[in-house]
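Sample log: Aminotransferase class I/classII large domain-containing protein.
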Amino acid sequence: MQYSDRIDALKAAGTYRKIPQLKVEGKYVWADGKRYINLAGNDYLGISTDTDLRDKFGNRALELPFSSSSSRLLTGNSPEHEALEAELSRLYGGKSALLFDSGYHANLGILPALSDDKTLILADRLVHASIIDGIRLSGREFRRFKHNSLPDLEALLQRFASEYETIWVVVESLYSMDGDFAPLTDIVALKQHYPQLRIYVDEAHAVGATGKKGLGCVEDLGLLDQVDILIGTMGKALCSVGAFALSGAEVRELLVSTCRPLIFSTALPPVCTAWSLHVIHHLPGMVARRAHLHRLVALLKERTGLPLSSYIVPVHAGSEECAVRMAEELKASGFFALPIRKPTVPPGGERVRLSLSAALTEQEVELLAQTIVRVMQTA
């Protein structure tokens, strides 16, 4: 098949994508010459608009290297990398921290590095594509259980527990398309019955905006000792770049020698790791900002009747055409939101995904609620 034929097939299937030409200014985005309130990003804490936080960072951005120019295993390591890992370890109760270029890199490499032919991987059906890619690269046996279904997970454990020495259960703490939380306490409790169980939690959308200290769900629930791998990202609520994995010291030591995305990628630039450390130092003190964000969630839930669990707001459409129309109606009211279609979600799961930010005001969310109600009535 020619590439042009494949492109035509993508267009016919509704899966053809283009990189949009946008300009983001804090909580706003410019598109087609018009300014909209940006509801399509992941700036949950509104850090991109925080000039005071940038001012406190001062001239450090001019003093640090803009590139590492090498893998950390060669010459790409720096005091900034080590300081950020040390601070993450301190905040997360002594867990060993290891930096990655992105959450995708971490999810792509960790399970292949930690599994063998006596390993089974059980993943929630809605885990991120990067996790699925990592599972496939591992070449190990895996099954997917119904989303957030303890009975389905337990049925798989009962069926396969006697056949494997290690079973990884892989979930996200906060799911990026549905905005709901995993039943982490119940999942961790399964370790009492299955000693070979290992828990892998991706907290990409929880770190920063969830928990009393902004450290995500696992720390907030007091489950750090029970979760074997915790993945956090700096590229969403923290408005930086990169990701981190928290684990036991022995696991970290093994990953340094075997995790291919870490070994064969240029390290994060020191200027970026220094900015991440700067933000993380201030994260526990952003209590008022997180409280405001969660008040906005409560307000939107009350005004729209949507069953919201978090600052990720899915407005279900039921078809591609309806999702596109809903997004256009939101834009007409000044809100930039995107339709979510296959393959990101399965057919029938089409929606408009909205992300709330602490940079929004209650008045803006009131207007958003009115718009959502109108859009749902005409869908």
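Observation: The two ends are 38 Å apart (CA to CA).
Observation: Residues 287-304 form the longest helix (18 residues).
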